Amino acid sequence: MEFFLQTFRIFQKFSLTINLIIVSFICFTLSSCEPENNNNIEAVSALALVANNRSTGSTSDNSCSSTAYCKIFVSTASYPALNTNLGISGLDSYCNNATDKPSGGGTYKALVTDETTRIACTTANCSGGPSEHADWVLKANKQYRQSDGTTVIGTTNANGLFTFPLTNPPRTNWTGTMNTATGLRPNWTSSNNHCTGWRAGGTFMAAQHNDTSSLAISNAGTMSCTDDARIICVEQ
């Protein structure tokens, strides 16, 4: 299914490029043959603008909102220091520039919280509903799969949260640390252990990426912000 979607997007881009060439040619012809006919020139210019906007919109639309599932990957390389003034945006950038980011494009965000910029819930399991979110990375009622696009991790509920146990962990074990940095509590509220917004020293709440219980997001203990940890990255 993903192959056909990618093929369709490539076809869309090619078709829109041809449209832009045709419109540009018409615009050139009118401006050369009828220099005084401003109405014609303005009309064709408007068509060119519409075509350009459509082209821009289609090429930038890499969201998984309209697809059957979104992907989650855990960075193979552990981030060596979470106290280096990264902030949430720095961790998001880390996800998008990771060498093991899944194929197919798309934008990814880090599954972390900091009590202010990114929040999953302000009450246990978002008893007040999804309005408690702030820049939250999981979509409501959405299936998530591992980076292979096949292995199902789980499906979120109406509040954009996983219920446990998961079908499969975010990623199975491999050599090296299993610890991931999240800053979350097991009930999806924010811990105050998040390296001061992922910008300074202190500690962070860790999780274990190879678990299917709530340990997948939290409660694996607190770690020093100078310790190595992996990042869970979620497709948007």
Helix and strand composition category: alpha+beta
- Describe the sheet with the most strands: 5 strands, mixed
**CATH class descriptor name:** Alpha Beta
Q: What is the CA–CA distance across the termini?
A: 18 Å
Structural notes for this entry:
The protein contains 4 helices and 8 strands, in the order ααβαββββαβββ. It has about 240 residues and is α+β, with helices and mostly antiparallel strands. It starts with a helix and ends with a strand. It is globular and about 40 Å long. It has a single domain (about 70-235), classed as Mannose-Binding Protein A, Chain A (Roll). Strands 2-8-1-3-4 form a 5-stranded mixed beta sheet, covered by helices on one side. The longest helix is centred in the first third of the chain and has 32 residues, at about 1-35. β3 (about 145) and β4 form a beta hairpin.
